[in-house]
Amino acid sequence: MANQNPQPEIYSTRHAFTAAATQGTTVTQTVYTNQANTEEVRVYAVSVQMIDTNGGLGAATLYEDFNMRIQIGQSYVPFQPFDAGLINHMGEKTLTFATPMLVLFQQPISVEISWENSTALAADTTVKVSLHAELALQTEYPHNNGQPNYGRNY
Amino acid sequence: MVNQDPQPEVFDTEFTFAAAAPAGSSITNTIYTLQGQNEEVRIYAFTAQVTNATNGVFTTMIDYDMELVVGANTVPSNPFDISWVSQSDELSCSFTVPAVVKFKQPLQVRIIPRTAVPAITNVRIQLIGETGVIKV
Q: What global pTM score does this model have?
């Protein structure tokens, strides 16, 4: 339930991998948006930081071959997995989506992180993901199939 | 009370964690916005920096969460990770929409280490916002 309309949201998840995790090992976390049936969440960007077991940048900075996938309701948005190691390596550590992801009432969000390298992971690593979003009351979008019209008047 | 409308604001606050502070311990600081009853504060972004309190050097333990409390509510709804902010080039994070602080709503920042703190550590947070007169 939003306290202001719209309300900024950052949903953070932690994905812990143990050393020797093999290719394809996946850790999935669920995000609870706590939204009401009159509200929707729009996710605009994602940030990634990898850390070691001491909460620092030791060995974890060396192993970045992780993919990310975001499931909203029954569907993956975007369709395909994308590189999380790249985001961790960027200076701004943030990837902005071309258009926001839309999360409606009672649609669970799951963030999946998978180790992709054919060599087993060499150190315990935690992948921290932050989804940059807003929570807002739904408004009517006439003549646009239920999608936001971004200020266009039909 | 603003001197111009809107007026830029930078609210600085610093959190000092003792060595061996356990994971999950937290420090909460209150920010005084000094706004008039016809004014509101809009927080657009924040910066985060984690340094060793003894020598000011960047520390290796960066695993902290932050919570912003506006009035009786947390905005955003949940604590969120700031490790990536303190490791990014800009050291800053913009909210998708501003957090709005009304008159007499206390503004608090809470920092929560998620891993035991190895050495005395300062976490510095700057809230970047503006104070403006409310237009109806």
A: 0.90
